[in-house]
Structures are given as C-alpha cells and as structure tokens.
Design brief:
Number of strands: 25
Radius of gyration: 23 Å
Oligomer: single chain
Strand content: 15-25%
Structural class: alpha/beta
Shape: globular
Distance between the termini: 14 Å
Length: 556
C-alpha cells in the first residue's frame, strides 16, 4: 500500500493558471509561487459582484481519537466528488503548522487519493504566510520591550505585559522564560512567554480580516500590556501597525492550489481549534463562495470546538450563513469512544459501537441547535462490517440526518459520490435557518456557561478568581459584547481528555481569560490546555528525511 506522500509525489498536477481558470480567475490576478501554487492578488472586495454567492458547506467531525477521523480527507474527497457530478465546487482549508507536522501528525493535506497538492510544499514552508505572521508578532514584542527600555513614555507596567512571542514549532521549554538578563543595556528583566504561531492573535486577525484596511484596524487595537493605572496599551499606541502590515501584505492574500483530481483549493491561515478559533481565513472562504457554486470548508478538531467557533465567531464576524454541515465519523473512532483499545479497533464489536455512538449523538444534537441541515459522513475503513455500518446509518436517520458512506481515501472523488449526492439533495430540499448559539448582549461569563452547558453537556462552570476578575474587567472596559473562544482539550466534551464518549456530571474549569481585542473575541482557557505544545516522546521528525535528489520521505 502506497503512503500518502508517495501518492502525492506521483500525481500529475495542472499548472495553477488552469486551476484558477475553472473559477473564472485570470492569470493576471495571480501571483505565482512556482508552477503549482499561487496567491490571488485581485482586490476581492466586489471583484465578483456579477456572480451570486454559492452554497456554503462546513465539514466537521466527532471528537478526534488516535484512530483518526479523516476530516480533511473527507473534505477534499467531497470537493472532488461534487465536481465529478458536474457541480462547480471549491474547497477552503487551513494551512498546516510546522509544530504538529514534526510532532505527532506528520502532515495535514488530507490522505490517500483525497489530498491537496503539492503536499510537501503545503506541509513545510508553503508561501511563507506563517513566517510572516511570526515575524509580525515578534516585531511587536521587540517594539514593546524597546519602548520600555527607551524611557517608557506610555508607563507600561512590565508586570502586566500580555503580548507573547511566538514560534511555529512545538517547543515546551519556551512556554515560560525570562528576558532582559545581562547588562542594563540588554533590556528590562521580566518574565515572558511563547505561544505557537497558530495561537498568536495575529493569526486570528489575519483570518478574520476582510481587507487590508480591516487588517490594519484590527492590528492597531490589539492589547499588548497595561500601564501602571491599569489602562490598556495597544499596538497602535506603539506605532507598530504599519510595520506589521508591511510584513503581512502578501500573507493576507489567499493561496490557491489543487487536489489530486484538480479541484481548486484555497488554503489560507491556520489557527488551531483547541487553543484558537480554528477556521481558515474569511477572505479564502468568501473567495470560494464568490467563484464556485458550492464552497466546502472545514473547522478544526471536533464539532464541539471547530464547528462551534465557526458558527459563533467566524460566521458572526463575517456575516456568513452556512447552508449545510457534514459531520464526519468512523466506526473505529466510535468503538474507541465505547472503550475499545486502539489495537483492537479492527475487530467487530457491536456492543462497543452502541456504547460509543453517544459521542456522535451529542454532536448531532449540538449542530441541530444552529438550525443547519446535517449530513453524516461515515469515513469507511476496510475493517468495517455491514452490520456496523447499517447500525450507524439507522441511528443517524432516526435523528433526522442524511447519511452516506465515504471511501475517499482509497477511491478519491469516486468514493465520495454517494456523500456528494446526499449533500446536493440536502441543499436542494432543506433550508438553513442558521442562528448563533447566543446573543451578543449576553454577559461574557454567561456566554461561557452557555457553550459549556449546551455544547459540552457540563453541569456548570467553575471560574478561578483570576478568570472571574479578568472577565469582570473586560466587561467594564466595554468588551462584553464579544463572542468567546473556548480553549479546551479536543479529545473530550469535557476539559478532561480521558473522559470519552458523552460524559455527564462534570463541570468546566476556566482557569484564565484574556482579551483578543484585534481578533474580536475573548479567550477562555479551560483545564490544562496549553498554547505552546511540546513534542511527543518519539516525534514525527525522527522519520522525516530528504534524499540526494531532493525527494522528501517520511512526511505523513
């Protein structure tokens, strides 16, 4: 059996200009990065006004397990299948972070015959967007420390600096550091921290910005510290906005590549869903909507994280109205949620499947609260039995969901035709009446309680004194209308990763809350979730290499 990277390296790609032409994008509106990838450079505001927006479809999944759910693979395969059926479809995905690529995942471009390519480029440096975000983030950090060193006109309290440096690599030793050691000329000594680039507020700002003017406005209002009187100090007050925007002038342009079957794929931005808002850029999503009849996008991790943030943050900010949602599940993952060990998932086990399907059930109930039609996609494995598949199908249909088996890893678009037909039928026969989970006017703490109770199934929320005080301060500062971005483990509905299935009788603990004024949301950190991951005992990097002819091996 060929590996994903072997399949990708054998693919025959079309010049990116031909891919763009499928969507009515002229080569003059592309900035080429070699033959097979490009940035769309045309001013997107109103550039396709003569074309009605297409249908917007979100792909999400049950809680991730070590067995893998294949959400990106299904997204890619679905886009390919829609085009096989004569629909003009485009997909919109996030860019992979280097941290997980060299840590645990080893790549994030889909899999098998449902991948976006060039796979190695995408998983490594791609078009440099993450490097630009890292540079802009750390420029602001440098300007902040320099301001304190050079007289501190803004009276910044070094004990209340909230802006963190970032790096696009899992590196646990950088979570907590001390800067300014050495001579007086080396800066003011203070505690500092690193987050991974995908958790930087600049990543969220880039992904939520509508244009360059909006980007600059968001950058300017990012809060970096507080002064001795407790007043916020912003990036705009440090005169850092213009320089950061200069570093991001190319990164804001959406990237265009293709799938193995030449379906157009906009891949742009990459916030994690467990520690950030988990969605690709608004610009890329809207570009897909403007140029295709059906735009298929995805949100990170399970629906309790990615889909909730897509609906309550991204759709709210960009006035998007999704037409349908595809919920990905696997029999193997459901059995894992039913208590089966990872090395025993291939064996038939109806009892475990019936026990673990409550995880899928809860996600369906959650998505129904947003009034968007649901299609459940069962990502097929060769070990699935007819009895197991029939049980999941009946279960989903009894809950009012369309259902289809997808075999897109092995068969590409052909293996997604049944799913595509089910989606098309849903789009043609069911009307979306999308609405967010909560209103803007609800207090921040109540928004957190709403997500915890309605989406996670928690009995309630425990706020540490620090988190409670921070939320009260944000309310007093006038930010109570913002949505909340919940930072939580992806493995469970709860904030305890070991509680699988559909846990009950638990509470969510919010240990910290902070304001992302530029992005336009409040982050609530729950449990032990970290914004700078570490490498596992055996990193994926151990198996990655490059041959003398430049061919990369071991990358997924």
């Amino acid at each position: 059996m060929k590996s994903d990277i072997e399949i990708a390296q054998e693919a025959k790609l079309l010049p990116i200009g031909e891919i763009a032409a499928k969507l009515g994008i002229a080569e003059d509106d592309l900035e080429l990065y070699g033959k097979y990838k490009a940035k769309v450079t045309k001013n997107l505001s109103g550039c396709f006004e003569d074309q009605k927006d297409g249908k917007l479809v979100l792909v999400t999944a049950i809680n991730p397990t070590p067995a893998g759910e294949g959400k990106t693979t299904v997204t890619v395969g679905l886009g390919q299948a829609l085009n096989r059926l004569g629909k003009k479809a485009a997909i919109a995905l996030r860019e992979p972070s280097l941290g997980p690529c060299f840590g645990v995942k080893g790549g994030a471009a889909g899999g098998g015959y449902s991948q976006v390519v060039p796979m190695e480029d995408l998983n490594l440096h791609f078009t440099g967007d993450f490097h630009a975000i890292t540079s802009a983030n750390n420029l602001l950090a440098a300007m902040l420390d320099n301001h304190i060193q050079q007289g501190n006109e803004l009276r910044i309290d070094p004990r209340q600096v909230v802006w963190k440096r970032c790096l696009d690599m899992n590196d646990r030793v950088l979570r907590n550091i001390v800067v300014g050691l050495g001579k007086v000329s080396d800066g003011v000594v203070r505690e500092d921290h690193f987050v991974i680039t995908v958790a930087s507020e600049i990543m969220a700002v880039l992904c939520l910005a509508e244009n360059m003017a909006d980007l600059k406005e968001r950058l300017s209002r990012m809060i970096v510290a507080y002064d001795y009187d407790g007043n916020p100090v912003t990036a705009g007050q440090l005169s850092a906005t213009g320089a950061m925007a200069a570093l991001l002038k190319d990164a804001i342009k959406p990237n265009l590549i293709q799938t193995l079957e030449h379906t157009p794929a906009f891949v742009h931005g990459g916030p994690f869903a467990n520690i950030a808002h988990g969605c690709n850029s608004v610009l890329a999503t809207k570009l897909a909507l403007q140029t295709a009849d059906i735009a298929v996008t995805e949100a990170g991790f399970g629906a309790d994280l990615g889909a909730e943030k897509f609906f309550d943050i991204k759709c709210r900010a960009a006035n998007l109205k999704p037409d349908a949602v595809v919920l990905v599940a696997t029999i193997r993952a459901l059995k894992y949620n039913g208590g089966v060990a990872r090395d025993e998932l291939s064996a038939p086990n109806m009892d475990a499947l019936k026990k673990g399907i409550v995880n899928l059930e809860k996600h369906i109930y959650n998505l129904q609260k947003y009034n968007v039609p649901i299609v459940v996609a069962l990502n097929a494995f060769v070990t699935d039995t007819d009895e197991e598949t029939a049980f999941v199908r009946s279960f989903c249909e009894q809950l009012g969901c369309a259902f289809a088996v997808a075999n897109v890893w092995e068969q590409g678009g052909e293996g997604g035709v049944d799913l595509a037909k089910a989606l098309i039928h849903t789009l043609e026969t069911k009307e979306s009446a999308f609405r967010p989970l909560y209103e803007d006017e609800l207090p921040l703490a109540d928004k957190i309680r709403t997500v915890a109770r309605e989406i996670y199934g928690a009995d309630g929320v425990v706020f540490t004194p620090e988190a409670k005080s921070a939320l009260e301060k944000m309310e007093a500062m006038g930010y109570g209308h913002l949505p909340v971005c919940m930072a939580k483990t992806q493995y469970s509905f709860s904030d305890n990763p070991s509680l699988l299935g559909r846990p009950q009788g638990f509470q969510i603990t919010v240990r910290e809350a902070y304001l992302s004024a530029g992005a336009g949301f409040v982050v609530a950190l729950t449990g032990n979730v970290l914004t700078m991951p570490g490498l596992p005992r055996v990193p994926a990097a151990n198996g990655i290499d490059v041959a003398e002819d430049g061919v990369i091996t071991g990358l997924y």
